[in-house]
C-alpha cells in the first residue's frame, strides 16, 4: 500500500481541486489531508479487512466497526472502573443510583 500513498501524492494525472489535500484517490474523487483517513478509504477499493473478530468469522475494514460488531453480536459492553471506599451504590425510590454510607 506504500506505493499507492507515494503515487497519490505525486501523480500529475490526478485532478486536484484543492492542492492542500495531500492524498488523492486514483480510483474515485476522494481526497484527504490525513494518511489514516486515506488508508481507511482505500480499503473500500481493495476489500481489505484487517480487523477480525476473535469470537466468529466476521471481518471488518475499520476498527470502530469491529467494536460495534462485538457489542451487538457478542454482548460485549463498555467497561467502566469505579473506586468506591466504604460506600455502597443503591437505588432510591425514584430509581436513581446514589451512594450510601
TrEMBL record:
SUPFAM superfamilies: beta-beta-alpha zinc fingers
Keyword Hydrolase: no
UniProt GO MF annotations: zinc ion binding
TM annotation in the entry: none
One GO location term (cellular component): nucleus
PROSITE patterns: ZINC_FINGER_C2H2_2
Biological-process GO terms, alphabetical: positive regulation of transcription by RNA polymerase II
SMART domains: ZnF_C2H2 (SM00355)
Domain C2H2-type: from-to ranges: 23-50, 51-79
Keywords tagged on the record: Metal-binding, Repeat, Zinc, Zinc-finger
The protein's name in its UniProt record: Zinc finger protein 518B
Amino acid at each position: 500500500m506504500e506505493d499507492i500513498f507515494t503515487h497519490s501524492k505525486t501523480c500529475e494525472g490526478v485532478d486536484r481541486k484543492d492542492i492542500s489535500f495531500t492524498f488523492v484517490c486514483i480510483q474515485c474523487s476522494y481526497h484527504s489531508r490525513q494518511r489514516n483517513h486515506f488508508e481507511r478509504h482505500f480499503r473500500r477499493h481493495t476489500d481489505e479487512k484487517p480487523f477480525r473478530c476473535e469470537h466468529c468469522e466476521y471481518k471488518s475494514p475499520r476498527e470502530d466497526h469491529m467494536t460495534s460488531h462485538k457489542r451487538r453480536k457478542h454482548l460485549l459492553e463498555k467497561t467502566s472502573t469505579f473506586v468506591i471506599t466504604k460506600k455502597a451504590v443503591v437505588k432510591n425510590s425514584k430509581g436513581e443510583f446514589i451512594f450510601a454510607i
